[in-house]
Amino acid sequence: MPFHEIMPAVRDGRIDAGLVIHEARFTYQNFGLTLMADMGSWWETDTGLPIPLGAIVARRNLDLAAIAGWVRASVDYAWAHPEASQAYVLRHAQEMSPEVAQAHIDLYVNEFTAELGGQGFEAVYALLGRAAQEGLVPEVDLALIGV
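Structure (tokenized):
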């Protein structure tokens, strides 16, 4: 079901439970819902690693150094000028007040955004490895992703 329909469906009794992500971590109470499990906390406790939330991918025949520079410049600009992206975030958010938007950004835009580092790569490897063991994704050659 589409993301924006999950919490109303649980609230209205059309489904028993739902898995919600991102800003819903801060808004599920507004629907009279109760947290059963925080999957991010579970992951961090189970693995001792941060939860990998996303990736920027590009074809290898592109100028990867240039792309990395553009991404870094964008992140640096956003950190230096947080007000510049708030309208965009609010326009594309499912259900978010300015306060929830800031809490969401503070939680998910962190040191791993600027530099994945060894622990970040370990988290990606753990996620891909577990998913491959379950048959959800093919085995990944870590040499291809820079690990």
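The domain at 64-145 is CATH 3.40.190.10 (D-Maltodextrin-Binding Protein; domain 2). DSSP finds eight helices and no strands in the chain.
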